Amino acid sequence: MTDTSHENHHTENVQAHLKQVEALLHRHALVEEVAHKQELPRQDRHALVDTLLHKQHLTELQLKLESLHPADIAYILEALPIEQRLLVWDLVKSERDGEILIEVSDSVRESLIATMNREELRAAAGQLDADEIADLAPDLPQNVMRDVFKSLSIEEREHLRAAMSYSEDSVGALMDFNMIHVREDVTLEVVSRYLRRFDKLPDHTDQIFVVDRDDVFKGVLPINLIVVNEPEMLVRDLMLTDTIQLHPEEKADQAAQAFERYDLVSAPVIDEDKKLTGRVTVNVVLDFIRTESESDLLNQAGLREEEDIFASVWKSAKNRWTWLALNLCTAFFASRVIGGFEDTIEKFVALAALMPIVVGIAGNSANQTTTIIIRSLALGQITQGNARRLLIKELAISAFNGIVWGGIAGLFAYFLYHSVPLGVVMTSAMLLNLIVGAVVGMAIPLTMQKLGRDPAIGSSVMITAITDSGGFFIFLGLATIFLI
Questions:
Q1: 3-state SS assignment for residue 49
Q2: Based on the domain organization, do 375 and 398 belong to the same domain?
Q3: Are 134 and 156 in contact (CB under 8 A)?
């Protein structure tokens, strides 16, 4: 993601910026409404609108937008309804289009790109570095990408090809080519002179990468060592060789874990020939972590993709259909499970009132287990060696909770309906269903990962379906055996 700062950027809370923009848009809409209600000839009316709107609120709004960081503008665009979003987008200076398109979510970016012509898109992409263009490429028309590719230098074309060749979840997709490297046989004085040739250092430059004449990576030279040591010292005498190195094909989540574990600001990316290919910086890693967290939340709820909250009803509905359809099927199945015990329920009506308790607490417990497992999988903490031990632990937790909370529920059922067998059935059903929930809560994410899928996809939907059907069957089955 771009880190370009704006010289007039203010540090106020982004929510305050949003409220100010909304207030200006509201005043703009009021004035427009008043102007169009005037009993004036059409030509005079348009002149009045132009005078009142474009010279007042829209100008003020444009000045406000010019003072904001691209990330703040992106946030505002995501929070506005489509009509207002496009109005604000038209007021953003064209030289900042690319920076903002990189910052907005995929769904909102789609709505903005749809309003831009070929030349505008080419100009927006032309403002970005090769790695940023690669991020934008999937949303751009092919003819625009051809234009952008032709406009790049030979080196930038190679960088763009490299960035686009890696999968989205790899280190290569996070890689930045804008970095500084020096050779190991030069002095700190030479390095200092070289650095002074830059107008500004690349963002998040906390260390300089050291290579030989063939660009083979040798180590890193922290910036602070350049400052505190004598100019005559050689780079090879000060550089650090025991440092974290990433590889382009490595999983991005592993790189994120390394950044978190070792408090990294930047890290070199080394290819199979030990040559320096690029670097990964902490800002990109944070963006990746945020995106992955949002994706996990969506997947657990069964949403297919990130949703523009102001998208059309039709588009938003389609995004939610897949797992709603599955949920409907499982609900029908659960209803048939209940239907199979109609005679039992008719003879003991209290069962109908107690059933939701059994399935509810089991579903909650299973979701807790799944959340722990998904987090552990993301951190790489679950292996073939410890998976069985973890399953035994989760079963033990569920059994303990089943005895404790099932016992409480059984006592509740006894005092409410004065039936010892009903209390025993309640306790037993909760115990068994909590154990089922633990097994399912572990099995679903582990199975999804084994199949090469995101462990979070639809997990809560499937867990609810299984614990509901299983809970009804266990509770009503035990009731049929012991109460009838």
A1: helix
A2: yes
A3: no
- The answer to whether position 174 is within a domain reads no
Distance CA(121)–CA(109), nearest Å, equals 12
Q: Are residues 91 and 197 in the same domain?
A: no
Check if the beta carbon of residue 246 is closer than 8 Å to that of residue 255.
yes
Structure tokens given for 114: 């749809």
pLDDT at 9: 45
Same domain? For 335 and 433 the reply is: yes
Sign of CA dihedral 277, 279, 284, 286: positive
Question: Has residue 207 got a pLDDT over 90?
Answer: yes
Cβ contacts of 365 within 8 Å, gap of 6 or more: 398, 401, 434, 437, 438, 441
294 and 440 both lie in a single domain: no
Q: Per residue in 344-365, is it b (16+ CB within 10 Å) or e — as a string? A: bbeebebbeebbebbbebbbeb
Residue 275 to residue 271: CA distance in whole angstroms? 6
CA dist 34 and 225 (Å) reads 65
Structure confidence by residue, pLDDT tens digits, 87-99: 999 988 787 899 9
Q: Is the pLDDT of residue 383 over 50?
A: yes
**pLDDT(44) > 80:** no
Look at residue 312 in the predicted model and tell me its pLDDT. 75
User: Please, are residues 424 and 410 in contact by the beta-carbon 8 Å criterion?
Assistant: yes
Number of domains, the chain: 3
Q: Which domain holds residue 414?
A: 313-483
Q: What is the CATH number of the domain that holds 108?
A: 1.25.60.10
- Binning pLDDT at 50, 70 and 90, where does residue 1 land? very low
The band of 424, judged by pLDDT with boundaries at 50, 70 and 90, is: very high
CB contact at 8 A, 183 and 213 = yes
Query: Helix (H, G, I), strand (E, B), or coil: what is residue 274?
Result: coil
Helix H segments across 197-279? 223-228, 235-238, 252-262
CA distance 207 to 181: 9
372: its two tokens: 């722990």
Q: What is the CATH number of the domain that holds 236?
A: 3.10.580.10
| Structure confidence at residue 458 (pLDDT) | 66
